[in-house]
Input
Amino acid sequence: MGKIKIQKKDVWIDMTPMSDVMTLLLCFFMLTSTFLQPEPIKVNTPSSVSEVKVPENNVLNILVSPEGKIYVGTDNKNDMVAMLQTVTDKFGVSLNGKQLKNFKEESMICAPLNKMADYLSLETEKMGEVAPTLGIPTDSIEGGMSEFQEWVKAARETNPDLKLAIKCDSQTPYKVVKKMMSELQDMNENRYQLITNLKQSSED
Output
Protein backbone atom coordinates (compact mmCIF):
# COMPACT_ATOMS: atom_id res chain seq x y z
CA MET A 1 0.00 0.00 0.00
CA GLY A 2 1.46 3.36 -0.97
CA LYS A 3 2.30 6.01 1.64
CA ILE A 4 0.17 9.08 1.86
CA LYS A 5 2.28 12.19 1.60
CA ILE A 6 1.16 15.06 3.80
CA GLN A 7 1.67 18.37 2.18
CA LYS A 8 3.98 20.57 4.28
CA LYS A 9 2.99 24.12 4.87
CA ASP A 10 5.26 26.93 6.02
CA VAL A 11 4.26 28.60 9.27
CA TRP A 12 4.54 32.35 9.12
CA ILE A 13 4.09 34.52 12.19
CA ASP A 14 3.55 38.22 11.80
CA MET A 15 5.97 39.95 14.25
CA THR A 16 4.77 43.47 13.46
CA PRO A 17 2.39 43.75 16.48
CA MET A 18 5.14 42.56 18.83
CA SER A 19 7.56 45.16 17.42
CA ASP A 20 4.94 47.85 17.91
CA VAL A 21 4.41 46.84 21.54
CA MET A 22 8.16 46.78 22.26
CA THR A 23 8.57 50.25 20.71
CA LEU A 24 5.73 51.64 22.81
CA LEU A 25 7.18 50.11 26.00
CA LEU A 26 10.63 51.51 25.22
CA CYS A 27 9.20 54.99 24.65
CA PHE A 28 7.18 54.76 27.86
CA PHE A 29 10.18 53.86 30.02
CA MET A 30 12.38 56.51 28.39
CA LEU A 31 9.83 59.25 29.03
CA THR A 32 8.94 58.25 32.60
CA SER A 33 12.38 57.27 33.91
CA THR A 34 14.32 59.52 36.27
CA PHE A 35 18.06 59.50 35.67
CA LEU A 36 20.23 59.60 38.77
CA GLN A 37 22.80 62.36 38.97
CA PRO A 38 26.36 61.08 39.38
CA GLU A 39 27.74 61.63 42.87
CA PRO A 40 31.33 62.79 43.51
CA ILE A 41 31.96 59.88 45.87
CA LYS A 42 30.57 56.41 46.49
CA VAL A 43 28.57 56.13 49.69
CA ASN A 44 27.38 52.89 51.28
CA THR A 45 24.46 53.94 53.43
CA PRO A 46 23.58 52.07 56.66
CA SER A 47 20.54 49.81 56.84
CA SER A 48 17.22 50.82 58.33
CA VAL A 49 13.64 49.53 58.61
CA SER A 50 12.15 52.82 57.36
CA GLU A 51 10.41 52.83 53.98
CA VAL A 52 9.66 56.56 53.68
CA LYS A 53 10.39 57.66 50.13
CA VAL A 54 12.52 60.76 49.62
CA PRO A 55 10.93 63.24 47.15
CA GLU A 56 12.52 63.34 43.70
CA ASN A 57 12.26 67.12 43.26
CA ASN A 58 12.98 70.16 45.43
CA VAL A 59 15.52 68.31 47.55
CA LEU A 60 18.83 69.65 48.85
CA ASN A 61 21.04 66.57 49.02
CA ILE A 62 23.79 66.56 51.65
CA LEU A 63 26.35 63.84 50.97
CA VAL A 64 28.93 62.79 53.58
CA SER A 65 31.85 60.54 52.62
CA PRO A 66 33.43 57.84 54.80
CA GLU A 67 36.28 60.30 55.48
CA GLY A 68 33.83 62.99 56.64
CA LYS A 69 33.90 65.16 53.50
CA ILE A 70 30.62 67.03 52.93
CA TYR A 71 29.03 67.82 49.56
CA VAL A 72 25.83 69.74 48.82
CA GLY A 73 23.68 69.80 45.70
CA THR A 74 20.22 69.76 44.18
CA ASP A 75 18.81 68.35 40.95
CA ASN A 76 17.68 71.80 39.77
CA LYS A 77 20.55 73.39 37.83
CA ASN A 78 18.97 76.85 38.04
CA ASP A 79 18.90 76.60 41.83
CA MET A 80 22.53 75.48 41.84
CA VAL A 81 23.61 78.48 39.76
CA ALA A 82 21.60 80.85 41.98
CA MET A 83 23.23 79.35 45.09
CA LEU A 84 26.66 79.81 43.54
CA GLN A 85 25.90 83.43 42.65
CA THR A 86 24.74 84.20 46.19
CA VAL A 87 27.74 82.68 47.94
CA THR A 88 30.44 83.87 45.54
CA ASP A 89 29.06 87.43 45.56
CA LYS A 90 29.10 87.45 49.36
CA PHE A 91 32.73 86.33 49.62
CA GLY A 92 34.07 88.05 46.52
CA VAL A 93 34.90 84.91 44.52
CA SER A 94 34.91 85.48 40.77
CA LEU A 95 34.61 82.72 38.18
CA ASN A 96 35.23 82.86 34.43
CA GLY A 97 33.14 81.34 31.65
CA LYS A 98 34.88 77.95 31.62
CA GLN A 99 34.59 77.61 35.38
CA LEU A 100 30.88 78.44 35.30
CA LYS A 101 30.37 75.92 32.50
CA ASN A 102 32.11 73.21 34.54
CA PHE A 103 30.02 74.10 37.58
CA LYS A 104 26.78 73.67 35.63
CA GLU A 105 27.88 70.15 34.67
CA GLU A 106 28.52 69.21 38.30
CA SER A 107 25.82 67.47 40.34
CA MET A 108 27.09 68.78 43.68
CA ILE A 109 29.24 71.51 45.19
CA CYS A 110 32.52 69.75 45.88
CA ALA A 111 35.11 72.37 46.82
CA PRO A 112 35.65 75.04 49.49
CA LEU A 113 35.47 78.64 48.36
CA ASN A 114 39.24 79.21 48.53
CA LYS A 115 39.76 76.34 46.07
CA MET A 116 36.59 76.71 44.00
CA ALA A 117 38.17 78.54 41.06
CA ASP A 118 41.14 76.15 40.84
CA TYR A 119 38.87 73.11 41.08
CA LEU A 120 36.51 74.32 38.35
CA SER A 121 39.47 75.08 36.07
CA LEU A 122 40.42 71.39 35.93
CA GLU A 123 39.44 68.98 33.18
CA THR A 124 36.36 66.86 33.85
CA GLU A 125 38.35 63.66 34.49
CA LYS A 126 40.69 65.45 36.89
CA MET A 127 37.76 67.01 38.75
CA GLY A 128 36.41 63.53 39.41
CA GLU A 129 39.75 62.50 40.89
CA VAL A 130 40.16 65.61 43.06
CA ALA A 131 36.57 65.92 44.37
CA PRO A 132 36.89 63.12 47.00
CA THR A 133 39.79 65.00 48.64
CA LEU A 134 37.94 68.33 49.01
CA GLY A 135 34.43 68.87 50.36
CA ILE A 136 32.74 71.82 52.05
CA PRO A 137 34.21 72.93 55.41
CA THR A 138 32.09 73.08 58.56
CA ASP A 139 34.52 75.46 60.30
CA SER A 140 33.07 78.89 61.02
CA ILE A 141 34.26 81.85 58.95
CA GLU A 142 35.60 84.64 61.20
CA GLY A 143 33.33 83.59 64.04
CA GLY A 144 30.22 83.58 61.86
CA MET A 145 28.53 80.84 59.86
CA SER A 146 30.49 78.01 58.27
CA GLU A 147 30.73 77.49 54.51
CA PHE A 148 28.37 74.54 54.88
CA GLN A 149 25.79 76.77 56.56
CA GLU A 150 26.27 79.47 53.91
CA TRP A 151 25.45 76.99 51.13
CA VAL A 152 22.38 75.70 52.98
CA LYS A 153 21.25 79.29 53.63
CA ALA A 154 21.75 80.18 49.94
CA ALA A 155 19.75 77.11 48.92
CA ARG A 156 16.91 78.06 51.25
CA GLU A 157 16.85 81.64 49.94
CA THR A 158 16.84 80.35 46.36
CA ASN A 159 14.03 77.87 46.91
CA PRO A 160 12.12 78.06 50.24
CA ASP A 161 10.34 74.79 49.41
CA LEU A 162 13.54 72.74 49.41
CA LYS A 163 13.58 69.68 51.64
CA LEU A 164 16.84 68.46 53.17
CA ALA A 165 18.07 64.88 52.68
CA ILE A 166 21.27 63.62 54.35
CA LYS A 167 23.13 60.66 52.89
CA CYS A 168 26.01 59.41 55.02
CA ASP A 169 28.29 56.42 54.63
CA SER A 170 28.00 53.72 57.26
CA GLN A 171 31.68 54.36 58.09
CA THR A 172 31.36 58.15 58.43
CA PRO A 173 32.73 59.30 61.82
CA TYR A 174 29.92 60.11 64.24
CA LYS A 175 31.50 63.42 65.29
CA VAL A 176 31.27 64.68 61.69
CA VAL A 177 27.57 63.83 61.44
CA LYS A 178 26.89 65.31 64.88
CA LYS A 179 28.63 68.59 64.00
CA MET A 180 26.80 68.84 60.69
CA MET A 181 23.42 68.28 62.35
CA SER A 182 24.31 70.80 65.07
CA GLU A 183 25.01 73.41 62.41
CA LEU A 184 21.65 72.68 60.79
CA GLN A 185 19.92 73.07 64.14
CA ASP A 186 21.68 76.40 64.68
CA MET A 187 19.96 77.55 61.47
CA ASN A 188 16.59 76.21 62.67
CA GLU A 189 16.78 73.49 60.03
CA ASN A 190 15.33 70.77 62.19
CA ARG A 191 13.47 68.78 59.55
CA TYR A 192 15.49 66.54 57.26
CA GLN A 193 15.48 62.98 56.03
CA LEU A 194 18.24 60.42 56.41
CA ILE A 195 18.80 58.25 53.33
CA THR A 196 19.40 54.59 54.17
CA ASN A 197 19.13 51.13 52.63
CA LEU A 198 16.15 48.99 53.50
CA LYS A 199 17.20 46.39 56.04
CA GLN A 200 16.93 42.82 54.78
CA SER A 201 15.62 39.97 56.94
CA SER A 202 18.99 38.19 56.55
CA GLU A 203 20.68 41.06 58.44
CA ASP A 204 18.75 40.35 61.67
Q: What stands out?
A: The helical segments are 16-32, 77-91, 97-105, 113-120, 124-130, 147-158, 174-186.
